[in-house]
Design brief:
The chain has helices at residues 2-132, 150-154, 168-180, 205-222, 257-268, and strands at 137-140, 143-149, 186-190, 231-235, 247-252. The chain is of the alpha+beta class and 269 residues long. Strand 1 (137-140) and strand 2 form a beta hairpin. Helix 1 crosses helix 3 (168-180) and helix 1 (2-132) runs antiparallel to helix 5. 17% of the residues are buried.
C-alpha cells in the first residue's frame, strides 16, 4: 500500500513537473510569438510608410513626366516656329543678298559710266585746250566750259552786244574744234553787269545778256559754219556774274542725255 501511494505521489509530482515545464515552454513560445508579432507589426508599419513614400514619389514622377511631356510639346512647337522663322530669315537674307548684288552692279555701272564720261571730258578738254590755249578753258564738276571776258568779245562798252572783230580769231578756233567733233553741243551763256539801260535799244540786263549770247552763236553759225542745231543761247542777266568782270561762258556738251543713256545701257547689261 505504501508503494502504491509512493508511486502515485511520484507520478503526480512528475506530472506536475512535466506540466510546469510545458507551461514554461508554452509561455516562452507565446513570448517569442509576441516578439515576432511586434517585429512584424513594426515591419508592416515601416512597409506602409515606405509604400506611402513610394506612392508620393510616383505621383511626383508622374507630375514631372506630365510637365516634361508638356515642355517637350512646347519645345517641338517652338522648334517648328524657329525652323519656319529661320527659313524665312534665310529666304530674306538671300533676297537681300540678291538686292545688294543688283545694287552693287548698278553702282559699278554708274561708276563705269562716270569714269567713261570723265575720260571723254578729259579728251574734249585737251582738244579745246590745245586749240585756244591759255586759262580760258576750265573743267568743274564734270562740265567743260570756256570763259571769255565780255571786254574781249564785245569791247570796252558794257552795253555792246555785237562781237568785236578782235574776238573772232578765238571764236574761229572754238568753231574749228566743234566742227571737227560733230558729237559735241554747246550752250553760250551771257552774263551782263547790273547796268541802267534806257529801255529803248535794250530793255534790261536780261535783254543785254541774251543778245550777247545770241551774237556769239550767230557768229559761230554764220562765219564758221557751226550747225545751229548744236548750239543754244542763254541770258543770265547780272545774276550769274563770275567775279567783278562780266564774262560769257561757252559750256561744252551741257546736256547729260549721252551720260544718262550710257548709265541706262550699262545697268541693262
Amino acid at each position: 500500500m505504501r508503494k502504491i501511494i509512493l508511486f502515485a505521489s511520484v507520478l503526480l509530482l512528475t506530472s506536475s513537473v512535466v506540466h510546469a515545464q510545458k507551461k514554461k515552454d508554452l509561455l516562452a513560445e507565446i513570448d517569442k510569438l509576441r516578439k515576432e508579432l511586434k517585429t512584424t507589426e513594426g515591419e508592416l508599419t515601416e512597409a506602409r510608410k515606405n509604400e506611402k513614400v513610394a506612392q508620393s514619389k510616383v505621383k511626383t514622377m508622374e507630375t514631372q513626366v506630365a510637365d516634361l511631356k508638356e515642355t517637350n510639346a512646347t519645345l517641338l512647337t517652338n522648334m517648328s516656329s524657329f525652323t519656319e522663322l529661320s527659313n524665312k530669315k534665310a529666304s530674306n537674307l538671300q533676297t537681300s543678298q540678291e538686292i545688294i548684288k543688283v545694287k552693287d552692279q548698278q553702282l559699278n555701272a554708274i561708276n563705269d559710266a562716270i569714269t567713261s564720261n570723265d575720260s571723254i571730258n578729259l579728251a574734249v578738254f585737251s582738244k579745246f585746250k590745245n586749240a585756244i590755249g591759255g586759262d580760258n578753258i576750265k573743267i568743274s564738276n564734270g562740265t567743260i566750259y570756256i570763259v571769255l571776258p565780255n571786254t574781249t568779245l564785245f569791247g570796252e562798252n558794257d552795253k555792246n552786244y555785237i562781237v568785236d572783230e578782235k574776238a573772232k580769231p578765238t571764236l574761229e578756233k572754238i568753231a574749228a574744234t566743234l566742227n571737227a567733233n560733230p558729237d559735241l553741243n554747246i550752250l553760250v551763256e551771257g552774263n551782263s553787269n547790273a547796268l541802267k539801260l534806257d529801255g529803248k535799244n535794250l530793255i534790261d540786263n536780261w535783254d543785254l545778256s541774251s543778245r550777247q549770247a545770241a551774237s556769239v552763236v550767230r557768229v559761230l553759225q554764220s562765219d564758221y559754219k557751226v550747225d545751229p542745231k548744236r548750239m543754244e543761247a542763254l541770258g543770265k542777266s547780272e545774276y550769274a556774274t563770275e567775279g567783278i568782270e562780266t564774262v560769257t561762258r561757252i559750256i561744252i556738251d551741257p546736256k547729260f542725255d549721252k551720260f544718262y543713256n550710257m548709265v541706262k545701257d550699262n545697268m541693262k547689261n
